Amino acid sequence: MPEERVLERWFRLREQGTTVRTEAIAGVTTFMTLSYIFFVQPAVLKAAGMDPGAVLVATCVASALGTLIMGLFANYPIALAPGMGHNFFFAFTVCIGMNIPWQTALGAVCISGVLFILLASVGLRERIIDAIPTSLKSSIAVGIGLLIAFVGFQWAGLVVDTPGTLVGLGNLTSPPVLLSSFGFVVIAALMAARVPGAILWGIVAAAVAGLPFGLVTYQGIASVPPSLAPTLFQLDVIDPFRRGIVTVIFIFFFLDLFDTIGTLIGVSQQAGFIRDGKLPRARQALLADAVASVIGALAGTSTVLSYIESAAGVAAGGRTGLT
């Protein structure tokens, strides 16, 4: 079919040993794995005084555009969305801890993104990637994965805040823990059986199992989205310099830099993209990440970057930007 030939020419599916069906399953898997951010992000940035409905829409729009740029421009199966950790630093350290308006914090994110674009355009970030030892590159991805896993343990109730030890074991007989454990076991069993889309089917199984117990509530298929107006173009790029918080800009920049490098290397190693210790089309991938961060700041959300959850789609067979 003409459509398949176009997809083949653009994404080089045969060269990467994949098919349209495999890429579709991998794409849905990645989406389902990272979709928690669409609920977490408004809850976190609400603490900074931002409108949660507008943040929800800004997060969706910036993630969609950033992912499209990565897929079409860099041809990698790597999705983008606001980074975990970055949002907490934005809301609780900068806005609440330093008493900085969220408009100014968004301006700092935008400036760091522009700086990111400039460095990516001249290839400096590629040199940084090459200069970082392989062990450190891998450990960054592991660290991000541990953070995401720990957040998941908390939300599931597997670990709880305990005085004295800070972290304690939750109630293993509570419904949320049992449902999460059920989903994990299903995913593990399907992966062991080499079932395509194992992570996706595990997520679906857990969601269906949660319906009768009220742990998952059906909210409908579609609705009119909230207004983006409260956050769209509300950033202030002058106030960060007026307040002398240049250090905050550089912290946003370096967080994005090393988070992105760790994710790109971690996912690319899993997918087999690394050639002679180097990542092909690294400049395109870094530019996509940088542009997405600026788009996110303009729309009204914290730093948008490459997502380590893309590894779930890679595990399901995703190998190109079509994912």
Query: Approximately how much beta-strand content do the residues carry?
Result: under 5%
Which regions have little confidence, pLDDT < 50, spanning 5+ residues?
none
Terminal residue distance: 19 Å
Helix content: 55-70%
Mind telling me the C-alpha Rg?
20 Å
Q: Summarize the helix and strand pattern as letters.
A: HHHHEHHHHEEHHHHHEH
Q: What is the number of E strands?
A: 4
Structural class: mainly alpha
Explain how this protein is built.
- The protein has 323 residues and is mainly alpha-helical.
- The mean pLDDT is 90.
- Helix 3 (37-46) runs parallel beside helix 5 (86-97), helix 8 (134-156) crosses helix 12 (246-271) and helix 9 (175-192) runs antiparallel to helix 10.
- It has helices spanning 2-11, 20-34, 37-46, 52-74, 86-97, 102-121, 124-131, 134-156, 175-192, 198-210, 239-242, 246-271, 282-299, 310-315, and strands spanning 80-82, 159-162, 166-169, 304-306.
- 45% of the residues are buried.
- The strands form 2 sheets. The protein has a two-stranded antiparallel ribbon. Strands 2-3 form a two-stranded antiparallel sheet.
- It is globular and about 60 Å long.
- It starts with a helix and ends in an 8-residue tail after the last helix.
Short key terms for the protein model shown above:
globular; mainly alpha; two-stranded antiparallel ribbon; two-stranded antiparallel sheet; 4% strand; 14 helices; 323 residues
Topology:
Elements: H1 2-11, H2 20-34, H3 37-46, H4 52-74, E1 80-82, H5 86-97, H6 102-121, H7 124-131, H8 134-156, E2 159-162, E3 166-169, H9 175-192, H10 198-210, H11 239-242, H12 246-271, H13 282-299, E4 304-306, H14 310-315
Antiparallel strand pairs: 1-4, 2-3
Helix pairs in contact: 3-4, 3-5, 4-13, 6-12, 6-13, 8-12, 9-10
